[in-house]
Each structure stands twice: as structure tokens, then as C-alpha cells.
């Protein structure tokens, strides 16, 4: 699918203006989570019970993350868009309902793989792989719409200070365990400047002990080169 010239120019202009992007970082993490989980299901040996258990658990956790992401957008981002650009989220909102149904179906299918007798398990595992492939594909298209159509509406009708308020209100509702899982996928998947900007923002708002705890988690998620680069950008000690 081609990106038309108007859409491309809009994205380039917005990036050049360094507008606050509510979708960019989290969507990079979600793309990594979705595709990595799909690859794990594709590699899974359906005759290896331990491998099946570990992989289907990964699928369940990925689905939990996707379900939580839908809730966050429905609760904070869509109402903000609709308040100033009515009708903009209608298509994506309907897709969210489809995603919820797909998540339930995939959850049941993953559980079925684990309970199917070994001689028949390969066929059910293949169905899980194919259905998960469709889910991943649809989510990738879905996120593209959000990062173009929805961002255009947000940037047209909100200042960056207002967008930061929406972001902060959303983040404040995320439980610690979910936040840790989100960061585990997001931080290694974003660029070095994005990583430094995110953590620099946290440092400016969080108490020092809380920020130090976050950095302790970050250290476990990055390789040595990424960790050294982050500390250089933040002016902190590695």
C-alpha cells in the first residue's frame, strides 16, 4: 500500500516540528511485542509440552497488553479527539471492538493448544499461528491509521502542553506490573533520542527515588552500548 504525497508531507512536517506524538513510542513497543510473539508461535514445536506451555503463556500476556492498550486509548485518546474533531475515531473505535473479539478468540485458541492431545496439537497450533498472523496484520494497519489520521487531528486541535496532559493522565492509571511489561518492550524498540527524551521527562516529574528505580529496570532491558548511550544523553552515571 502506497503512502500518498500529502500524507508523507504531513508526517515529515510534523516530525520536523518535533510535535509531541502520543502514539510513536508505545506503538513501536507493540509492534515488537506482536511480531516477536508471532515468530515464537511459528517456531513452537507442538510436540514439546514445555515449549507449548511457555509459548501460549507468551501469547496470553501479549493479548493482555493489547487489551489494556485498547482500554487506554478508548478512555483517554479517543474522547480527546472526539471533543474537538467529532467523528474522527469512528472507524478505529469500531476496530477496537473487533480487536476485543479477536483477543477473546485468540485467548481461547491458545488455551486449546495447551489442552489438545499431542497427536492432534500440530493442527490447532497451525490455526493459532494463522489467526495470530491476521491479528498482527490488522493491528499494524490499525496503528498506521492512528499515527496518521488520529495524529493529524490531535496536532490540529491540541497544543503539545495539552497532549502532554492527556499522556500524563493516561500513564497515571497504568498499574506498576503493566508498566514494567510495557517498558520491557518499548524501551529497547525506540531510538536512542526517543529513549532519552522519555526518561528525561520521567526524571523531571518523578521523585528521585522513583526515577532511580525506573533506571534500575531500564538497565536490565538495554545492552551495554544502549545503556552507556542513554547515560551520556541524560548526563547520569552508568
Describe this structure as you would to a colleague.
The protein has helices at residues 5-16, 24-43, 49-84, 90-115, 118-157, 160-171, 176-186, 192-205, 208-221, 224-234. By secondary structure, the protein is mainly α. The chain is globular, with a radius of gyration of 20 Å. The longest helix is centred in the middle third of the chain and has 40 residues, at 118-157. The chain has two domains: 5-175, Four Helix Bundle (Hemerythrin (Met), subunit A) (Up-down Bundle), CATH 1.20.120; 191-238, no CATH class. Helix 3 (49-84) runs antiparallel to helix 4. It is built from ten helices and no strands.
Order of helices and strands: HHHHHHHHHH
- Strand fraction equals under 5%
**Roughly what is the average pLDDT, rounded to an integer?**
93
* Helix content estimate: over 70%
Biggest sheet character: none
Low-confidence stretches: none
- Tell me the number of structural domains: 2
Shape: globular
Structural class: mainly alpha
Radius of gyration: 20 Å
**If you consult CATH, what is the topology of the largest domain?**
Four Helix Bundle (Hemerythrin (Met), subunit A)
Q: What is the distance, rounded to the nearest whole angstrom, between the alpha carbons of the first and last residues?
A: 44 Å
CATH architectural type of the largest domain:
Up-down Bundle
CATH superfamily of the largest domain: nmb1532 protein domain like
Care to count the β-strands? 0
CATH C-level class of the largest domain is Mainly Alpha
> Counting H and I runs of at least 4 residues, what is the number of helices?
10
Amino acid at each position: 500500500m502506497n503512502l500518498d504525497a500529502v500524507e508523507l508531507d504531513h508526517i515529515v512536517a510534523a516530525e520536523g516540528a518535533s510535535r509531541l506524538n502520543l502514539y510513536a513510542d508505545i506503538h513501536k513497543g507493540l509492534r515488537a511485542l506482536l511480531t516477536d510473539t508471532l515468530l515464537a508461535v511459528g517456531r513452537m514445536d507442538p510436540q514439546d509440552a514445555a515449549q507449548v506451555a511457555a509459548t501460549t503463556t507468551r501469547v496470553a500476556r501479549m493479548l493482555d497488553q493489547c487489551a489494556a492498550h485498547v482500554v487506554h486509548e478508548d478512555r483517554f485518546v479517543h474522547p480527546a479527539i472526539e471533543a474537538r474533531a467529532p467523528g474522527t475515531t469512528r472507524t478505529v473505535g469500531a476496530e477496537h471492538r473487533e480487536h476485543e473479539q479477536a483477543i477473546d478468540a485468540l485467548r481461547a485458541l491458545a488455551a486449546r493448544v495447551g489442552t489438545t492431545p499431542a497427536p492432534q496439537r500440530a493442527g490447532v497450533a497451525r490455526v493459532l499461528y494463522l489467526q495470530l498472523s491476521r491479528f498482527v496484520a490488522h493491528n499494524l494497519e490499525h496503528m498506521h491509521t492512528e499515527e496518521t489520521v488520529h495524529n493529524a487531528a490531535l496536532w490540529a486541535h491540541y497544543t503539545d502542553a495539552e497532549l502532554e496532559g492527556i499522556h500524563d493522565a493516561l500513564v497515571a492509571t497504568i498499574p506498576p506490573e503493566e508498566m514494567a511489561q510495557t517498558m520491557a518492550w518499548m524501551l529497547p524498540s525506540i531510538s536512542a533520542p526517543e529513549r532519552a527524551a522519555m526518561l528525561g521527562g520521567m526524571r523531571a516529574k518523578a521523585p528521585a527515588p522513583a526515577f532511580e528505580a525506573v533506571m534500575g529496570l531500564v538497565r536490565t532491558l538495554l545492552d551495554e552500548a544502549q545503556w552507556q548511550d542513554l547515560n551520556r544523553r541524560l548526563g547520569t552515571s552508568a
